[in-house]
């Protein structure tokens, strides 16, 4: 059913407790998943995983050379993340809206970052910025493949 549907990768950064209040301590995993689930997007893949430096560097390769790059890679590798693939109509664009602006103080209230994050270096969640980058990120984070299934609610959400 999914030929015309975009997919996106979301990484819920669950930082260890040595820094700012984090996703694990604040219990935000279910809250964030539930926003995408309730919207009606399809969950195609999800796992809790530790991130090796090579994967962190590859994921953020476009930022290599920027002053915040080493800290960014250290951050993504500093504790487990929940990696998810969501699918649905315009999920990349919708997902970016639901996540909110990169800088939490510029994120609208009601977005994930607007509601739960304070600083740019601890902004809780990554979402692919384009369909093309989502495809690359899915290959990077889910080499084992994704799950295809159809919800019994499908006809009530999808025209
Ligand atoms: P995005 O995550 O909203 O797509 P990008 O510009 O792709 O934002 O940046 C990737 C990540 O790099 C951001 O989510 C943020 O965690 C981090 N980052 C971006 N700009 C800065 C900065 O100026 N200082 C510290 N970290 C930054």
UniProtKB/TrEMBL annotation:
Domain Nucleoside diphosphate kinase-like stretches: 20-148
Signal peptide limits: none
Binding, ATP: 20, 68, 96, 102, 113, 123
Active site: 126
Coiled coil: none
Family to which the UniProt record says this protein belongs: Belongs to the NDK family.
Protein name: nucleoside-diphosphate kinase
Species, as recorded: Chara braunii (Braun's stonewort)
Part of the whole protein covered: 478 to 636 of 636
């Amino acid at each position: 059913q999914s030929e015309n549907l975009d997919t996106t990768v979301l990484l819920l950064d669950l930082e260890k407790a040595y820094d700012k209040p984090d996703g694990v301590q604040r219990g935000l995993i279910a809250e964030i998943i539930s926003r995408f689930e309730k919207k009606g997007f399809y969950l195609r893949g999800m796992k809790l995983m530790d991130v090796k430096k090579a994967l962190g560097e590859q994921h953020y390769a476009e930022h290599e050379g920027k002053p915040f790059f080493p800290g960014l890679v250290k951050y993504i590798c500093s504790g487990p993340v929940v990696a998810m693939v969501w699918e649905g109509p315009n999920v990349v664009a919708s997902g970016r809206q639901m996540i909110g602006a990169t800088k939490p103080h510029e994120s609208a209230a009601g977005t994930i970052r607007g509601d739960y994050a304070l600083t740019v270096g601890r902004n809780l969640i990554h979402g692919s910025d384009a369909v093309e980058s989502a495809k690359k990120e899915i290959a990077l984070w889910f080499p084992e493949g994704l799950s295809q299934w159809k919800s019994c609610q499908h006809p009530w959400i999808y025209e």
